Amino acid sequence: MKVLSVVQHTSAEYLGLLEDHFEGRQIRFKYCRPFTEGVEPPEPDAVTDALVLLGGGPWGSAGSRDVPTLDREIALARHCLEQDKPVIGIGLGAQILAIAGGGRSIPHPLEFTVGEATRIDSNALNGYLPERYPLAIYMRDRPDPPAHADILAEDRDGRPALCRIGDKAFGFSGHPGLKPAMIEDLIMEFAESPENIAPTLEKLRQLTTRLEDALVATMTGLIQQTRLMGPAP
């Protein structure tokens, strides 16, 4: 049974809807919460099968409000890339993955947006990535993947929504398994929050079914390409 090492940056943001998809495939996950007293990011050798780096709410990586464990997490992600271990980065995690892979992060104010991503590679995630799918972003700063990364989907402004770095590493700008309750908890957890939360949160609620449907296909392809259940076909 494979085990995911999941680095959580806030109490509110976790795997969300992804948990059921991993559990249904008998893939276990173990959370690490470096924001709690006395807890550090995993040591490189502690990541046995795969690394997941979650979002960070108002934490970023481009200099204005960096997550305190940024340098250690970049080193951890770089080690996993070098060892050809799967890495899944979401939000802030996608920024860390981009930096570890030779790219960077771009300064951007904290934002909460709900829109749509468009697939630009018909073979993305073994062809399972939907042509269009809901894109929910709660994030400070933006990932800028390295030139050798494959951009699999873009948002309406042409920015990367999903990228692939190397063979088994994927960066999602938005959380593909986001639940509205996670946003509500982020608002309560931090003093800082984006403007116009209420209408955007309502839009997310209205798109929940579409998000769940898109996740079924996305997870099928993601599991195949990360080889968390064996070689991709």
Question: Top keywords for this entry?
Answer:
233 residues, Rossmann fold, two-stranded antiparallel ribbon, 6 helices, 11 strands
Q: What kind of sheet is the major sheet?
A: 9 strands, mixed
Instruction: Please write the string of helix (H) and strand (E) elements.
Output: EHEEHEHEEEEEEEHHH
Strand element count? 11
What's the arrangement of strands in the largest beta sheet?
Answer: 2-1-3-4-11-10-9-6-7
Please tell me the overall pLDDT.
96
* Number of helices, counting only DSSP H or I runs of 4 residues or more: 6
CATH homologous superfamily assignment:
Class I glutamine amidotransferase (GATase) domain
How much of the sequence is in beta strands?
15-25%
Radius of gyration equals 16 Å
Principal-axes shape call:
globular
**What name is given to the CATH topology?**
Rossmann fold
